[in-house]
From TrEMBL:
It comes from the Bacteria. It is found in: Cytoplasm. Its main location: cytoplasm. The keyword DNA damage does not apply. GO terms for molecular function: uroporphyrinogen decarboxylase activity. One of its GO terms (biological process) is protoporphyrinogen IX biosynthetic process from glutamate. This is Uroporphyrinogen decarboxylase. It comes from Pseudomonas nabeulensis. It catalyses: uroporphyrinogen III + 4 H(+) = coproporphyrinogen III + 4 CO2. GO terms for cellular component: cytosol. Its EC number is 4.1.1.37. Pathway: Porphyrin-containing compound metabolism; protoporphyrin-IX biosynthesis; coproporphyrinogen-III from 5-aminolevulinate: step 4/4. Belongs to the uroporphyrinogen decarboxylase family. Substrate binds at residues 27-31, 78, 155, 210, 328.
Amino acid sequence: MTALKNDRFLRALLKQPVDVTPVWMMRQAGRYLPEYRASRANAGDFMSLCMNPEFACEVTMQPLDRYPQLDAAILFSDILTIPDAMGQGLYFETGEGPRFKKVVSTLADIEALPIPDPHKDLGYVMDAVSTIRRELNGRVPLIGFSGSPWTLATYMVEGGSSKDFRKTKAMLYDNPQAMHLLLDKLAQSVTSYLNGQIKAGAQAVQIFDTWGGNLSAAAYQEFSLAYMRKIVSGLIREHEGRKVPVIMFTKGGGLWLESIADAGADALGLDWTCDLGEARRRVGNRVALQGNMDPTVLYAKPEAIRAEVGRILASYGEGTGHVFNLGHGITPEVNPEHAGAFLQAVHELSAQYHD
């Protein structure tokens, strides 16, 4: 494989020295970019974009071509590929987001679910990873990803997105045996899926626990974190002669940072509700930190964006172990020039914090 020309993202995740704080954006390939919207129109719809490795590669590369400051590429895909491969029938309703043709509601439903083979059932994702990796040609590292078992379970039980997760939480409390079986199957599926991505060329992986923060403290430990810990313990941690860092991100997980830091990942993603400096004090040297600017700051003027970047960098302070990111995904209405100002500010303002 081609040697990496820019590895500061991987180095920061492993708390190794860097020249400037590395930066990337969740959802950096997305609807805020006119070139993405053109590619999606050419593909026909979102799933066609995801399931065609050439289109997935095209949109993965678009933000890198526009923003030379980006220190990583992230696979263009969707977190719901695993439930779809389990036979749930993923589709997208205009204005309503993801939906499933089948829902999981009983123990028998869960017992019937297969565990997907990443190469046979999700081969289009593996092909996308290898295609993107070739196209990158060592430019920056490639991040693979998956949804967490709890997050995937909420979509499978609810049949789509939810505001209150009433069906999922009812199953959790009424029938914990069924919920644990579902989460265990999903943990096995995510482990093999991420290992497949690593073998195909992903150089770091992130677990997106989008809805873990909606659980109580006790339920989070039992039904979300325990299964992410299981995944991390089963991941390939070294490939192609170098370590493969793992990032764990629970949106709304600020109350449980110490527990997440002990779960075995190399880095902990933070949403914007956490103070970065306080998070660093709480977790010590156990993990690197990723985050955590409020994505809506990008609606402000470039000088205000730059000021907020400076504040967050100062909060973290000197030394490595920080990957700058947004506290969640960039939103579709952001002006691409504002995203560029954000990325430029991170590199320009962070050099003073590194030897």
